[in-house]
Amino acid sequence: MVSIAKELEAAKAAKAMVDALLTRPISTGSAELRKAKTVAVVNLGGGGGALNEARANVGIALSNLMDRPPMPEKINNAKAAIDAWIKELEAAGG
Predict the structure, then answer these.
(1) What angle do CA 23, 28, 31 make, to 5 degrees?
(2) How far is CA 68 from CA 39, 46, 77, in A?
(3) At what angle do helices 49-67 and 30-42 cross, to 10 degrees?
(4) Which residues of the chain have pLDDT under 70?
(5) What is the maximum alpha-carbon separation in the chain?
(6) How far apart are CA 69 and CA 53, in angstroms?
């Protein structure tokens, strides 16, 4: 597990990468997205129910985004999942 602060840092980096996906290929930010997905999944079980739900959702959304061509729907799903994750991390004291 990593601290909430480090998890929030990873979430914000992933948000920046996803926001830029329409202007550059996925490979440019894939390391950051993989790191964020890993951090979210590894931290499942710590924190409250809403935070864990956000972690699970971001793990799924980022997996879908990386495993397939980044279509607008998948990008929007990832953005929404990351936004919810950031919100829950900030509420948890990040």
Answers:
(1) 135
(2) 21, 29, 13
(3) 150
(4) 24-29, 67-69, 94
(5) 35
(6) 25
